[in-house]
Amino acid sequence: MTAPVIGFVGMTHLGLVSATGTCSKGFAVLGVDADTALIARISAGDLPVLEPGLPEMIADNGDRQAFSADFADLARCDVVYIAADVPTDDEGASDLSGILALIDRVIPCLGVDAVLVVLCQVPPGFSRGVALSPDRLFYQVETLIFGRAVERATEPERFIVGCADPGLPLPPAYRDVLDAFGCPILTMRYESAELAKIAINVCLVASVSVANTLAELSENIGADWHEIAPALKLDRRVGPYAYLAPGLGIAGGNLERDLATVIRLAGEWGSDPGVIEAFVRNSRRRRDWALRVLERHVFPRNPDPLIALLGLAYKQDTHSTKNSPGLALARALAGRRLRVHDPAVHEADGLRAEETALAAIEGADVLVVMTPWDEYKALDPAAVKARLAGNWVIDPYGVFDAHMMADLGVNYATLGRPIMLAAT
Predict the structure, then answer these.
(1) Could you give all domains of the chain from N- to C-terminal order, each with its CATH number?
(2) Which of 63, 220, 322, 366 gives 20 to 30 Å between its CA and that of 414?
(3) DSSP code string of 179-229
(4) How far apart are CA 349 and CA 271, in angstroms?
C-alpha cells in the first residue's frame, strides 16, 4: 500500500512545524500558503519562525517535504490539515475569519476521498458548522509550545481527534498518519475535542496561578517556594510534571484565548466564570511583579536610575512578543532611562535592542532580566556586576545564582524568595 500524501495549509508557526514533524515520520508532505513570497522564503531556507531544531529537521526531510503557493496542488493529497495560526487580540478573542477563508478555498481543491483535518485551535461548535461531509471532516487538538515545537510535533503524548461520530473508525489514510507517531489516539465528538484543548490549558493556568500566588506569599513571609515545589511534585495528587515554577503570568496569546473563550461561553450559557476571571486577575498582577520591586525598592532611593532590561520575547526560544511581560514593563517605564536587549527581538514598540546583553548592562543602575534566555544564563555574574553602576538585579526566573549575587554585593530579587539585600 502506498503511503498517503499529506498537505498542510498555512505556513505560519503551527503549520510549518507540524508539516515538518509529520514529514519526519516518512510521509511525503506538501506545505501550501497563498503568500508566494513566504513560500519562496521557506523554500530558500529562510524560515519565518525561530524554533530550535526546525531548520535541521527540514534539511533532513529533503525532497519528501515540498512547498507551494498553488492550492490546486492539494488535489494529490490524501489528508489535508488546516494549520494556520489563529490571531488573537489583547483580550484573548480569536479572529477566525482567516481560517474560514482557508477552509472555503481548500474544500474545492480536495480529492474526492481526501480527508480534511482542522488543526488550528477553534472554539466549541466550530467544526460542526464546516460545510463538508462529516465522514471526511475531523478536528485535531494541536500541541504547539513555542520553543519546544519540534519536540511536541514529533513526540506527542497523545492525539485528541474530534469526529462527527467517534464510534466509527477513522479513515485509513488519516489513521496511518496518527499511528506513525506511536502514541494513544483518543476519538470523541467535535465539541468534546474542541473543549478538551481549552480544558488542558485551563488546568495549566490553574497550576500557574497556584504557584504564583504561593510564591508571592513565600516572598513576603520568608519561605522559599523553590524548596516547596519539589515536595508537591512527590505528592501523587499533584504529580512530578506539575507546572509549579513561578512566573510572570500567562503570555503568548494561546492561554489567554482559552480563558477568554471560557468566560464568553459561561456568559452565554449562564455558568459562573468567577474562578477563570480570578486566574486572569492573578496573571495580570504577576506580570507587574518586577515593576512593583522597582517602585518599592529602587525608585525611592534612586528616582532616575538607568535600567537595563534583558528580554523582550514573551519566553525564551521564540521571537514572539505577544503579551510579553518584558514589553509590558518597558511600556510602564516609558519616559525613564532604559536600555534593552533580546537575542531574537531586535526592535519592538519603538525600542531598539543593544548589540549584546553586556552592552545593555554597561553603566546601568539596575538590571532586570525578563526572559530566561540561555544566553543570559551563560553570563558571568562577576562580569555583570563589574559593568553595573548600581547594585540591583531583578531576576524573576532565577537566571543567576542568588547566593553568588549576594556574595558579589548585589541586591537580588527573584520570584518565590524574599529579596536578598547586600550587606551595607
Answers:
(1) 5-189 (3.40.50.720), 198-285 (3.40.50.720), 288-413 (3.40.50.720)
(2) 322
(3) HTT-S-EEEEEHHHHHHHHHHHHHHHHHHHHHHHHHHHHHHHHT--HHHHH
(4) 38
Is residue 406 very low, low, confident or very high in pLDDT (cuts 50, 70, 90)? confident
Query: How close are the terminal C-alpha atoms of the chain, in Å?
Result: 76
3-state secondary structure of 260: helix
Whole-model pTM: value is 0.81
| pLDDT computed for residue 108 by the predictor | 96
Q: Which residues have C-beta within 8 Å of that of residue 157, sequence separation ≥ 6?
A: 143, 183, 184
For residue 180, give the C-alpha cell.
506513525
Closest Cα to residue 7, out of 63, 103, 89, 82? 82
Reading the block at residue 86, the C-alpha cell is 489563529
What distance in Å separates the CA atoms of residue 302 and residue 295, rounded to the nearest whole number?
Answer: 10
Positive or negative, the Cα torsion across 326, 327, 331, 335? positive
Spatial CB neighbours of 394, under 8 Å, sequence gap ≥ 6: 290, 293, 294, 366, 367, 368, 369, 413
HSE of 16 in the Cβ direction (CA atoms, 13 Å)? 23
Residues in the chain: 424
Whether the per-residue pLDDT at 424 is higher than 70: the answer is: no
pLDDT digits (tens, 9 = 90+) for 251-279: 887 888 888 888 888 899 898 889 899 99
